[in-house]
Each structure stands twice: as C-alpha cells, then as structure tokens.
Amino acid sequence: MQTAKSIEQPNAAIQHYASTKRLTLGKVIIYLLLTGLAVICIVPFYLMIIYSTHNNATIASTFTFLPGPFVADNYLNMASKINIWRGFANSLFIAGTSTVLSLYIGSLTAYGFAKFKFKGRTWLFMFLLATMMVPGQLALIGMYRLFSTLGLLDSYAAIILPAAANAFNVFFIKQFMESSIPDEIIESARVDSAGEFRTFNQIVLPILGPAISALGIFTFIGSWNNFLTPLVLFFSLDKYPLPVLVALVQGYYGMDYGLLYLGVAISILPIIIVFAIFSRQIIGSVALGAVKG
User: Fold this and answer.
1) CA 61 – CA 83 distance, rounded (Å)
2) CA within 20 to 30 Å of 43's CA: 67, 104, 160, 243, which one?
3) Mind listing the pLDDT tens digit for each residue in 19-76?
C-alpha cells in the first residue's frame, strides 16, 4: 500500500508539473499573439506621426522609422493654405453637439419603447430598425432638398439635426434598459409623484451611464470622421470640419505628403483622447456586470 501510494505521489506531481507547463506555454503563445496584434495596430499610427515630421521629398524616396526636422515647416505650410484650427473647432463643435443630442434623444426614445406600453409599439420599433438598413448616403438628396426648403443649408443645424436621430443608439440603449432597469424603480418614482422627465433625467439616465459611455465613443468618432455630408451641405470654407479641410489640402494644393500626414495626425488626436477617457468606464461597467452575473 505504501509503495503504491509513494508511486502515485510522484506521478501526480509530474502530471501537475506538465499541466502547469502547458498552461504557461499557452499563456506565452497568447501574449505573443496579442503583442503582435498590438504592434500591427500601433505601427500605422507611429508611421503617420513620423512622416508628419518629414518633407515631401524624403517621404517619396525613403522608408524611415525615425523622426525628421520638418514638422515646423509642414505646419507653417499648412497654416498658409488652410485654417486648420478653425476646422478643428468646427469638428469639435459638430461632433460634440451631435453626440450629446444623439445620446439624449436616443435614450429618451429608448425609454419610451422600453417602459411604455402603447398600441403599435412593436411595429414602430421594427420600422425604426429597418431604417438602419438604408445607407445614409441615399438620404443626401432628400436632406439637401429638405434643408434647402427650410433655409438651413450651409448651417451647422444641417449636420447636427440629422445626426441626433440615430436608430442604432435607440436600439442599443433599449436593450440595455430592458435588462438593467426594472419597472419597479420607475413605478416607485411615479408613486412618489415624480414626472416622466424627472424620472428619466434623475433615475434612468444615471443608470444608463455604461451604455452611454460606450455609444459616446462610436457616435463621436462617426461624427468627427463624417466627410460626405459636410461636403455636400456646406459651401463656406470657414464652416468645413477638419476631414474636409485635410482633403482640400490633398486635392487643391497638390500632393504634399508631409503636410497631409500632419493634418491627419491632428485630426485623430481628439479621437484618441475621447477613447482614452471613456474606455475605462466601459471596462469598469463590463467588470461590474460580470460580478453581478
């Protein structure tokens, strides 16, 4: 008996060592794959920043990973052709306003679909989802005629108002609301004589923080990168957002790669900042949901 037991103990130790070694090897492989994917994602951004410090001749003739001395020259050249910071302010205003309005109106609409029972609610929601299948570019002609009739062409309202009606935001927030906000909370607020807007603003909206944070990133990025709609609905150069101005540098003034890379680098800076701010809240909300589950 003792002999068999003494034989089993080394075998168990060997098996434990082998399983631990397999787990360690698996973790190493996973880490290597993730590191490789991270490098693949980071290298284009790094090259974009590096090339913004070189002149056109260097970029066209060599491939380099080292910064150059022409960033000031590229900036002065760009500033002499377009008002880059005016475009930056336009993009920030349009994207910020569109994001806030889209999230609030989408949350309010989702609140109506999720917590109110009315006739035709299902068919109306299905129609709302069907609008997501239509490409936004197909609506440009109708938008142009509508805003021309209303006298809103070449105004910020022509870009902000359509962006405020986002069907995907309504769908996403409705699903989150149905799974995270019980009806008893809303009924309790109504029993305490709270109005619907007060219930929504003070009770429902704070609970929607994780969903709004996630949607805020994608809505802001989509509005910031919007190129075709401002190009069609705006006519004044001083109202163009940053993506349109960067494209004008490429189209009107020849192909200056250093200037173009610098303009793109400036244009993606707010996107990186917004993602860095809100990604922590998203990760925190996912971890909280995992603990509750």
Assistant:
1) 29
2) 243
3) 565 667 778 888 889 899 988 988 888 888 888 888 888 887 888 888 888 888 888 8
3-state secondary structure of 293: coil
Is the CB of residue 47 less than 8 Å from the CB of residue 235?
A: no
* CA–CA gap between residue 62 and residue 212 (Å, rounded): 45
d(CA 226, CA 127): 25
How wide is the angle at C-alpha 243 spanned by C-alphas 238 and 246, nearest 5°?
80
The structure tokens listed for 82 are 């377009």
Q: How far is CA 206 from CA 199, 217, 218, in A?
A: 11, 17, 19
Pick from 62-66, 128-132, 286-290: least confident: 286-290
Render pLDDT for 257-274 as a digit per residue (tens, 0 to 9): 888 888 888 888 888 777
Q: What angle do CA 159, 163, 166 make, to 5 degrees?
A: 165
The whole-angstrom separation of Cα 101 and Cα 220 is 11
> Which two tokens mark 89?
């302010």
- Helix orientation angle between 84-115 and 257-292, rounded to the nearest 10 degrees: 30
